[in-house]
Amino acid sequence: MKMFSGWRRFAFGVLLILLLTRLYSAVRELSSSKMSEPHKQLNKKFDHLVLGPAAGQGLSNRLQCQGSKALNRTHSSNDRLVVGNTSYNKMDRSMAVLNIFINFIQVAMPQSEVIILTDPVSDLSVHRNRVSLYPIQGEYSRDKLMLQRIRSYITFLETRLHKLSQNSRDITHYIFTDSDMAVVDDLGQIFRDYPNFHMALTFRNNKGQPLNSGFIAVRGTSDGILRAKLFLQEVLKIYVSKYINASRMLGDQLALAWVVKSKPHFDASRFAKTIAFSDDIGGTSILFLPCAIYNWTPPEGAGQFHGMPLNVKVVHFKGSRKRLMLESWNFYSATPEIADMLCLILGSGRTKYDF
């Protein structure tokens, strides 16, 4: 099948970056331990997906489904594409998630590159076109994992800033993401439609944690990279001084919210609406993008009660939803229709796909 080639018209590339650490080893060990348990223990959890009612039925701007068949089309810019099936076993689910993360990117954005920010001692075997490893020294214990992620982003931006100073015409935009995400549409649109921001964050209607750190976009100009780096340095400072007890998880999101909301007269009520907006936070122009489109989570997550927007671009398989990510890729490989795959995701219940 022919793939949409509009991405080639743009001079820049978008790199999707994740922090891959020993957390994957922990997941792999957990999977291994479950394999060694008695058979009756394994039967306590479902080994297949069970579809339920899809949220958002009857709403004109939401995906409409009949089982796993889409009744209307999403706004994806990609034509149908036949892709190969991916096989995996329970022992290697963590690496399967990483490879499927890459698969989705290479379907939706074939001209992008993937850079994996990782612990130098991690033994990763990822041999894929347009995929590379970027080791960064740091503290990768589980208690320091989220702190290290922010530090790694800052270190990476510093190296990109230095590289840009040597070649000011080599403009590349960056998107930092978690690895448990499926990119289902071209994210280059962010930089085309919103030409003036330095960095972008995703928000949701959550009073305590309105900002999700799983998706951070940075404009690849020298000013964009510098301002994003300074903003993240401020987030890191607040993280260490105010939320160090939450360093294992959530501390980064609490620190993000504190830095943003500390701006005088910042209107936090805008987080209750799924409309993108911009604001200047300490000299950094921040574009706030709704999670409903750029960081949508399957049932039991943000946006589920109103269904899935037709223009969703990123699906975030948080926590135990990672099995659903694997199932979704296999389903897409066989269909291959993005809208039908999204119906599979929308109709799946959390307890049906726990690891």
Protein structure class: alpha/beta
Total domains: 1
CATH superfamily: Spore Coat Polysaccharide Biosynthesis Protein SpsA, Chain A
Spatial sequence of strands, sheet with the most strands: 5-4-1-6-9-8-11-10
Estimated radius of gyration: 20 Å
Strand content: 15-25%
What helical percentage do the residues reach? 25-40%
Task: Give a short synopsis of this structure.
This protein is α/β, with parallel strands linked by helices.
Write the layout of secondary structure elements.
Elements: E1 14-20, H1 23-36, H2 39-42, E2 65-66, E3 69-70, H3 93-108, E4 113-118, E5 131-135, H4 145-166, E6 173-177, E7 181-183, H5 189-193, E8 199-203, E9 211-218, H6 222-242, H7 251-261, E10 277-281, E11 284-290, H8 291-294, E12 314-316, H9 322-334, H10 338-346
Parallel strand pairs: 1-4, 1-6, 4-5, 8-11
Antiparallel strand pairs: 2-3, 6-9, 7-12, 8-9, 10-11
Helix pairs in contact: 3-9, 4-6, 6-7, 9-10
